[in-house]
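G., the chain you wanted modeled:
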Amino acid sequence: MNNTVITYIAYLIVAIPLTIWVAKTLHKNGRVFLLKSMNNDENLADSVNHLLVVGFYLVNLGFVSLYLKLDTGVESISGIFEALSAKLGVVMLVLGGMHFFNIFLFSRLGKKNCDPTPATPPAYAGWNKAAEPK
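Predicted structure as tokens:
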């Protein structure tokens, strides 16, 4: 087995569990955030949370798979670490970027769905109903 194959195996051994861990963490901790964004509709929040996890897996595992190929062969042990750090660094940046993009979208949705309290008209100084002409 050559160093390039070892790099591929190590990349998959780290990238796939990393993706699974991030998805489980987002699913577990995202429920409260989604509930607020969905006006406390538990069924809708849970459904959206599940759909987000499925989409997260599809996009990220697809990206991990497509990003597997190395442009050059790995010649040494240090080359294995350099290739792994570059590949895993990009995967982590993509995972983080997707996370913040989702938070941005749902924070916007939460602001849009908030029920504003009805505004009370301002009181006019000096206005007296008893002093109105009849």
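The radius of gyration is 26 Å.

Shout if anything looks off.
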